[in-house]
Amino acid sequence: MNSNAEQHENAEGFGLLILLVILGALYYFGAFDEDPIPKEQQEVLNAIQVRIQKSEKVLDYLSFLRNDVSSACTDFTNKLHEKKHFEIYQSTSIGTHSMTHIQKNWSPNLKTVRRCSVSGVNFDANSKANGLIMHCETGGDGYTSKGMFLGCMLNEKTLPKKIRFLNSNTTHALSGLGKVGGKDIKSIGGVGDLIGGMISGKVNVKIASDKFVDYVKQDEFFQGMTNLASMSDLVKTTQEKIEDEQRNYEFWKEHYIKTN
Q: 187 pLDDT exceeds 50?
């Protein structure tokens, strides 16, 4: 008798387990969704997601250029200086000194170019970057530092192959202070530029070998860069495109759910 009761209980338990498995499967595959979205409308949402993913890949590529590639360009430039391909001379009120002299006598850990940021990128016909425009610091450290533009030409593997220094007016540390005491330091009768220029002086680049580095005027600096774009503008417009598409996705998803 007990054996029959146990068999009956086991059968009921097994049947309940099967029912739970079936219900779970139905739930997983959306059988109990309150407002299923028709296939045609889901395809619209999928298309928006594809556009978002494409823009996110563009943003990742721009981040790769701003971080990894610009770092490679900076390291490449500093190695060229270490191997005597070029020398930078800074003239201030205490005289003219080379970067090599500054590094040996005053700042042994100071890099020839440092704190570089990407201001522009040039693309080839296949929308692949083949050149970066970078703004880097050079010369002495602190208030004696100078800011100058360099172009980093890239090979087919997006690695630096040649550096172009722009032979033009340079900036100084004080020009980057922005608002000081609620005022723009450059607007105070030009005091910021005057003092900054006096402290940081001028820089010159002398080329020993032009195989990997050039010091050129503006026309030559932009030679071959026929598809140049602002990096900050590219990042901004791509981020805005992603945000717009995300809002678009949420709007249509909510609309489709309400109308079904």
A: no
Residues 179 and 146: their CA atoms lie apart, in Å, by 20
CB-based contact 90:99 (threshold 8 Å)? yes
91 token code pair: 């003239």
The strand ranges marked E within the chain are: 86-92, 95-98, 114-123, 129-139, 145-154, 160-166, 171-172, 179-180, 183-184, 202-207, 213-216, 228-230
Q: Output the pLDDT for position 199.
A: 81
- How far, in Å, CA of 84 to CA of 213, rounded? 11
Residue of 194, 172, 192 whose CA lies nearest to 184: 192
Whether residue 228 contacts residue 27, with contact meaning beta carbons closer than 8 Å, is answered with: no
Categorize the per-residue pLDDT at 32 as very low, low, confident or very high, splitting at 50, 70 and 90: very low
Joined tokens for residue 181:
């005491």
How far apart are the C-alpha atoms of 213 and 231, rounded to whole Å? 23
Query: Taking the model in full, what pTM does it have?
Result: 0.79
Beta strands at 86-92 and 95-98: parallel, antiparallel or unpaired? antiparallel
